[in-house]
Each structure stands twice: as structure tokens, then as C-alpha cells.
Amino acid sequence: MSESPVSGERAGDTASLGPRERVLPTISEPLAAAASAPVGGPVGEHAAVGRHWFWTPLRVALLFGVFALALAWFGKAACVQQFDAGNGKLELDWRSGRPYVAMCYSDVVPLYSAERLDRGGFPYKTSWVENKGKPNETVRYMEYPVLTGLFQWANAKMAQGWVQLADQGWLPTGLPVVVYFDITAFWLALAWLITLWATLLTARRRPWDAAFIALSPLVMVHAFTNFDTLATAFAALGLLAWARKKPVLAGIMLGLGGAAKLYPLFLLGPLLVLCLRGGKLREWAWTTGAAAVSWLAVNAAIYLPEDTRAGWSQFFTLNSLRGADPDSLYNVLEKFTGWEGFDPGLPFGESPFWLNTVSAVLFVVCCAGVAVIGLRAPVKPRVAQLSFLVVAFFLLTNKVWSPQYSLWLVPLAVLAVPRWRVLLAWMVVDALVWAPRMFYFMGDSKKGLPEEWFLGVVVVRDLAVLALCALVIYEVYHPARDLVRALGDDDPAGGVLDGAPDRFVLKPRREPVPA
After folding, report:
1. Which pLDDT belongs to residue 54?
2. How many CB atoms lie within 10 A of CB 19?
3. Membrane-spanning regions, if any (predicted)?
4. Would you place residue 57 in the very low, low, confident or very high pLDDT band (cuts 50, 70, 90)?
């Protein structure tokens, strides 16, 4: 006899988790049902679910994640190949446009020298002059937020220590930048596995959704393009802590995430709207206060010393000075319409005032719209639904959409709208942006793709994200169509909001006419 996974009582060997304890994707998801054909098809009607001693959904999801991350590493491996440049000297093989032809480009590799990590100094103290003697001469420091900058510095120190041990014959050797990339990839992979773990626990009765995102094409392409899995891990841990009714821990995780990338702090906005509606402002205040304290504590360590203050401000300065990114809608409009942009003829070193203003105003307007949706919907929206909308609208309205930013959406999208075919279609389109981007960056002189091809795929990607937003909003106003609520759940990620009655709502101007 064994213990029933459903009731905790002694039960026979046929005890099984029912659909109210675990959603079975091969039954509910056409995509999963089709994918299961090579291994025998959907789970049987009388199968004992949830009784295997080892292969739990969490372990399967982590195994899928390791497999996808291995593919992601091999996708970047072409950019860390070495060759003998003569006299036994090894150099990184980036000849003949290899990063673009092989589509293996990763910011991690060039930043090792570009951020002066190879020099051994502390990143926010170390400065250098770019374009010395030219009109655009400027003093530079580490350009990333504090946690991401310190992450790079720590990995560089580990890589340099590895090379020293290798020189003594203790370890296999290689170029320091190659060792640095591999060490960084290890920690980024671990951060994504933490993202999977936290998302799976947050999903509760839908754990297989996390197994689905483990195999996301976006992960295979962008897990090691930059350092964004650090932020996804903190954001996912913050949502899990909120779901477990630990608002202070949730705030700490979101604050640390904001010290790595800005976007985890955006999740405080949806929580404010939902806590206002559910009368839980005290819990929101604890979360926001903890987020502020943790963010300030990390940043104060770099801001307060005078010799690192200028380095600390570099991230904010450069973001203010940046123009429209190639992946942004503003660049698409400029290219396809011949428009000169919001700030034509801007002198070097001046911020694009109107571009920054328009981008910020559009995002604020979108956030206001999300707040109205959250307060006027017939049923309180789920945390993941509003969180996805806010992050998606930020990416759509922002002047910068670096390709790896799409990773931010993956866990939120699966929690917000767990429709696998729809999600897979978006992820494939988004991942495919990488190919024309790489060949466009090669330039026409090297037989690269014209810019219009790249921008055309960007438009399709943006339309796919907008379609996801529309689907989320539709399900907010039609909660009976929400798959998460199909079996009676309110909000698995809601924490104190889960099942809480409404305390404040915005009534529609006209009451619906009775059927």
C-alpha cells in the first residue's frame, strides 16, 4: 500500500491525480497530444498520474531545460572557437564575419574586453576613453546595472583564476575570453533553470506549462546572448514568493531583479492595481518597501563611494542618450516612411528629448489602460495576466528592444495564457528575428540582407506580441475562456489576492443589458 497523492490517506496502487489536481496537457492541449504520438499517444483514461517515484513534472521540466540550454550553448559555440594565429599564439576566430554568418553572436564575448574586464580592475572604478582625439570623445565605465556588472566582474575573476591554474597544468586551458564565456554560460543556465523551477511551482496544477517553456525556441537562441536570465530568475522568484503569501520576500526578489535589469520592478504596478481592487494595499506596501530597500542597498554600495559614483550613473546616462534601436517600432517607422525621427540632427552627447518623452508617455498611457482593465474587468484579473501586459507594452513602446529582452515575456506568457499552439507560434516568430538581424548586420558589402527584410520580420514579431496581448485582454473580460480558471481556480499566482473579494472597482458607464 502507498499514500494517495490526492488525499494523503493510504490508498491502492491505482490512486491517481485527477484533473483538479493536475492538468494533463496530452488531453487538454492539441499540440501536446500530437507531440506524444511517438511515445504512445495521450495518457490513458485509467493511468495512474502523479505516482512515479522519480519522473515528476519538475524533474522532466528541468531535464528539458538542460537539453534546450545545451542546444543554446552549441548555438553560440562557433563564436568561441580559437585558431593558431602564428608562433603558437591563439586568437578568437571571428574571421569572415563568423558571428553573423554562423548566427552565434553573443554580447558576452566582446564585452569581456569592451568593458575592460580583461584588465582586472573593479568595473565601476575602471574608466577608459572612447574615440580619443575625435569630436565624439567620451569617458566610459561599465554600462550595466549594478548586479549585472558585478556578475560580469566575478565571472571574469573566476576565468582569470582558471587560466592561472591551467598554466600550472591543473586544468584544461584556452583563451581567457573563452573560459569567461563558458563560466558565464554556466551561471546563466542555472538562472534559467531557477526560472523554470519557480514558474512551475507558481503554476500549481499546470506544471507541464513550465516543461513547455523549457523547450522554447527563444531560450535556445537567446539564453546566452546577454545576461537577461538573471532578471528572469529574480522575477520568477518574486512571483513565486507572492504566490506563497510572502510579500516581503517577493519585494526583495523584485528589488534584486531591478538591480540586474529594470523590468522586474514593473511587476509592482500590476500588483498595485490588483491589491487596490482586492483591498490588500498593506501587503503591496510591504512588497514595494522591501523592493525599494533591496534595490537601494545594492545600488548604494556603488553609488555612495565617490570613486564609483560616476561608474554607477553610466547605465542611466547611456540609456538616456540612446537613439531608436534597430528592433524598435520607431526605427521601423523611420525606415518605411522616410520620416527623420523625433530628434533629427541631434548633436553628439545630447539626449533625444522627444523620443524619450514619447516613449515614456506611451508606456504610461498603456499602463493606465492596464490599470483600467484591472479595475473594470468583470472578475479580478490574474497577476500573470496584468504582468504580461505591462512588460509587453514596455517592450512595444520602448526605444530599445534588444532581441534577448523577449526572454522576459516567456514565463509571464505561459502563466498568463497557457495555450501552447499560440505561444509556440509567437516564440518561433520571435526567435526567427535573429536570422535576418544577423545577416542585416553583415552589411550590403558582405552580401548581407537588406534592412527591409529585417524590419519586416520585426513588424511580424510585434504583431504577434500584440495578438497575445489582445488574447489576454479578451480572457480577462471573458474569464470563462481562461484555461487557468476552467476548473475553478481564481489565481494560482495571486497569493493574498487568490479568492479575495473585490473592494474597489470601476463600474462601466453603462450597465450591461440583461440577456
Report:
1. 65
2. 13
3. 60-83, 177-200, 212-242, 248-272, 353-376, 383-402, 422-441, 453-474
4. confident
Say whether pLDDT at 133 is over 60.
yes
Q: Which residue has the cell 504610461?
A: 364
Q: 211 falls in which pLDDT band (50, 70, 90)?
A: confident
Q: How many domains does the chain have?
A: 1
| C-alpha triplet 220, 224, 228: angle, nearest 5° | 105
The x, y and z cell numbers of residue 36, run together, are 506524444
Say whether pLDDT at 85 is over 70. Answer: yes
Q: What is the mean pLDDT of residues 350-358?
A: 91
Q: Which residues pair with 128 in a beta bridge?
A: 140
Residue 284 near residue 247 (C-beta atoms within 8 A) = yes
Secondary structure (3-state) at 327: coil
CA distance 30 to 420: 8
Q: What is the DSSP letter of 11?
A: E
Q: Is residue 513 part of a domain?
A: no
Average pLDDT, stretch 410-437? 94
Main-chain dihedrals φ then ψ at residue 505, nearest 5 degrees: -135, 155
Task: Give the span between the Cα atoms of 297 and 312, in whole angstroms.
Answer: 13
Residue 39 falls inside a structural domain = no
- What the block records as the C-alpha cell of 355 is 523620443
The answer to whether position 251 is within a domain reads yes
166's grid cell: 591551467
Close Cβ partners of 173 (under 8 Å, ≥ 6 residues apart) = 163, 166, 167
